[in-house]
Amino acid sequence: MDAVTGAFSYTGSAIAYELLARDRSVRTLVRSPAPAGHPLEGSVDIAPLALDDETALTSALDGIEVLYNTFWIRFPRGPSTFEWAIAASARLFRAAAAAGVERIVHVSVTRPSVSSPYAYFRAKAAVDELALGGPVPAVSVRPSLVFGGRQEILVNNIAWFLRRSPVFAVPRRPCRVQPVHVDDVARIAAEAVEPGIIDAVGPETFTYRELVSDVGAAVGSRARLVPLPERAVAALGRAAGVTLHDTIVTAEELGALTASLLTSDEPPRGTLRFSDWLPGQADWLGRDYHSELDRHWGGT
Ligand SMILES: NC(=O)c1ccc[n+]([C@@H]2O[C@H](COP(=O)([O-])OP(=O)(O)OC[C@H]3O[C@@H](n4cnc5c(N)ncnc54)[C@H](OP(=O)(O)O)[C@@H]3O)[C@@H](O)[C@H]2O)c1
After folding, report:
1. Does 165 sit in the ligand 1 pocket, CB within 6 Å?
2. pTM exceeding 0.70
3. How many whole angstroms separate alpha carbon 231 and alpha carbon 26?
């Protein structure tokens, strides 16, 4: 049996489906019960993701061969700081060792660095070091911008704005992204056996402006794309966030995007193309807003 943290969330659910398709038994460690009618309910064993209780984590991982870890926070909020998330990850990895887990497949991000100007990327690097330097053989799977599946937030919310607004602000600084389909991330994670680092990126590279423009075309948007300094885009994102009661995009996320951190220098392991996926999504993409705070922070 393998364990997946957060099998009712985004990447975690794709990994759980992938493992079940490979005839693995799956236990998920989750903070909350399955949403009503979730298709994975009944197919996976469920245990608590008690991130502050190492003993409970060790019990939850009893009998597990491979731990697939997708736990992370997009931004710090209240007591859930990046320092807390690093410490919680350390507890999870220690629990895996204590429970006799044979391998950890840890989902990270492209280009994490302890010297990054962005706290998210520094914290991800710190957790990678914990995973890769720990006693359990570990693989760090590093996705770029993940798309696909109905639970995704980023591309959906870009489409939501493009459907409603006559203008859409994009950072003036040219930047590249290499989106990867969530099913490719799941496959790459399921096939990650050798300890080390694997980038999980898709076969296509876009400028961010091209990506937004393609999303707009796919959903029939007439919004004009307006290049602005990053700071102005972040301020507009904050203002929209107040109205929608959400954290739409952080200054850090914009900084990392414009620094083209969501790309890889390795040959792409993902095969599913954003440009093939996008045209078929107009019936749902961007029709409803997907709130990060509602989904992962209890709407606080
Ligand atoms: N999505 C992307 O574009 C992308 C790109 C690069 C790397 N990644 C990495 O991929 C991994 C999985 O990301 P994802 O997009 O699939 O994330 P997700 O669905 O938002 O969440 C992943 C897991 O983290 C937990 N989590 C989220 N917010 C939390 C909070 N405030 N407090 C405690 N737990 C929280 C979730 O638990 P609940 O379901 O209980 O909230 C879930 O188990 C992360 O390591 C992320 O850094 C994602």
Report:
1. no
2. yes
3. 44
Structure confidence by residue, pLDDT tens digits, 158-188: 999 999 999 999 999 999 999 999 999 999 9
Q: Which residue has the tokens 């790309």?
A: 263
Please give the C-alpha separations between residue 278 and each of 90, 157, 219, in angstroms, as whole numbers: 37, 14, 9
| pLDDT tens, position by position, 29-84 | 999 999 998 999 999 999 999 999 999 999 999 999 999 999 999 999 999 999 99
User: Is the minimum distance from the CB of 111 to ligand 1 under 6 angstroms?
Assistant: no
- Taking the centre of ligand 1 as the mean of its atom positions, its distance from the CA of residue 222, in whole angstroms, is 32
User: Tens of pLDDT along 213-234?
Assistant: 999 999 999 999 999 999 999 9
Nearest atom (ligand 1) to Cα of 145: 3
